[in-house]
């Protein structure tokens, strides 16, 4: 083989080696894009659910009559603005505060797009039942809390959404609870009807028992003469102050074993069954300003007992606490006894039977023929006179 042949073969081998090296280099760089953009993260390629709340955070749509804070655009504040009509409510608003205005009428039009509303405060307006559209609230499928206190309503708006949990109707002119107004409110936990015109005839039947989740019912300052019938088992607090209830039926609380608090001051109770309050969870019992004179059984769980302004002449602690259980003592810590007709100190046995007593408020006691000092307290006072004149201030 001549030297020229050897040089030719060596040249071919070198060229073939360069080609192989070039192929390897190109093969190792096939994963890179030809442009300058960063490679796509495969974790981000999965379709994501749109974050509507994140988008809404940058939406500042608000009724011109109201204020929507940029820090929380889901709330619209229309209170204290002398409004006579409800402004249009944007779709994203969840909390509407429109209290302290002059609104008499509620139509469905402003609520057409308000599908996200969860809370409405219409208190301190001039709402009239005849001017509230029938279905104005029922279309709000996410509504949880509704404030309608301090208006001129004569009826409970109906129908109401099934989602409602808290309904405040105090300080109106409501005299009855129609069955169709409460039948579907199975999630309602708080019903406030204080300072209305409720009568026994207005809450007859099983109107209240359909509300299976009801925990608190307020019917203070009404015209009731008897205990409301058929309360649901879920009830935990009953407020019946300032009515004309004269008695509590025997066994009344057997249907409400979860009761924690009973408030019945300023009624006409003269006596209650000895075991009327034998409940396993009762913590507060307020019976002040009645006409009670016989002691009754005090349950072990009771912590606060109000018996002031009654007609007790003696307090038989042995009847109130018939047995001692040092391993499971009575929880009573406070008892109020002022303005009764007691003639001596409370039996020292009270501190043995109620070892957790912190205070027995004895106060002033009345004589048998003495007028209740609180009677004068609630008399209408004379109007103050204008300075330098005899004309009373209107």
Automatic annotation (TrEMBL):
Residues 61-95 form the LRRNT domain. One of its GO terms (cellular component) is extracellular space. InterPro entries: Leu-rich_rpt, Leu-rich_rpt_typical-subtyp, LRR_dom_sf, LRRNT, SLRP. It holds the Pfam family LRR_8. Residues 367-394 are annotated as: Disordered. Gene3D superfamilies: Ribonuclease Inhibitor. Keywords: Glycoprotein, Leucine-rich repeat, Repeat, Signal. Residues 374-385 have a biased composition (Basic and acidic residues). Residues 1-22 form the signal peptide. PANTHER family: AGAP008170-PA, OSTEOMODULIN. This is Osteomodulin.
